[in-house]
Design brief:
The chain contains 11 helices and 11 strands. By secondary structure, it is of the alpha+beta class. A 3-stranded mixed sheet has the order 5-6-7, with no helix packed on it. A two-stranded antiparallel ribbon has the order 1-9. Helix 6 packs antiparallel against helix 8.
Amino acid sequence: MIFAVQNLGGASTAYGMPVHYIANRASYGGCINCLVPSVELADMYEYKDGRPFNWDELFPGFSTDNTVKEKVFYSTFDENGKYVAEYPESVATLQKMYSERDPRMESTIILPYTANKYKGWVNNAAKDCEMIIAPSNPSNETNGYCRNAFGHNTYLYRKFVPEYDMNGLITDRFHSPTNFPLIRYADVLLMLAECYNETGNQTKAVELINQIRDRAGIALLNSGPSYLQATSKDQVFERIKHERAIEFAAEGIRYNDLKRWGLLISMTDNQAQVDVVGKVLSTKITEEKYKLWPIPQEEIDMNEDLVQNTGW
């Protein structure tokens, strides 16, 4: 981190940021997860060797058939809805697959059925909670499961989410002691890489991207196989877009990136938001006006020459 919002929680040091917007029901205070990772984000994480991830390679028909998704992910609970009666047959394949992905994935997202459980705080005590996917999901933090507060089978964030009670540093869900970055060194590298790419120096741009990939523990670009090739301007730009999406997940950067690239409308408008088994939860609408902020009315009142941006 180069510059961050410095947070501090505790009974007499309530200087933190709200936890509930990004945490889950097993988090301190039983939070409500206003923000969850999209399936699209989760699927962007490559394998450690740099291969693009593709569900259909593991489970044929997965990308087009929701019944395949359900068979892959769904567990069944006991008759009282308290404990898992049977995991999906695919659980070993899922665990192996997640372990072979870009390490940033597990650092960012709580992944179902993996050994890296979420360190929750339930009934005023530390509790390791597993993420389970099930129809009409009855999983409950009291029984050792982390869940979406609204009952949806979405992925959940691990990044920035408090673990246990942060050794006593957190006393309510409105004041997380976790610092929030405004700019990180990785951002500087990728901004500079973008500049080099735009001015025709793809070699230098790739060197900067590879600094981040090397730190993350993933194969470097232009290090052998064709799926790692990035030599043209368009290829390097695609890599920059990819790296910025997965590196800065939940850091409030993606929206402005898409605006800068002129891709906000095409990549977000009318985009279906689905859960891990393909159920549509909502459809995103992005209007042209969102490319610009509205001019505050008080500024217009002080300057009659100002004209409000279209749509506001």
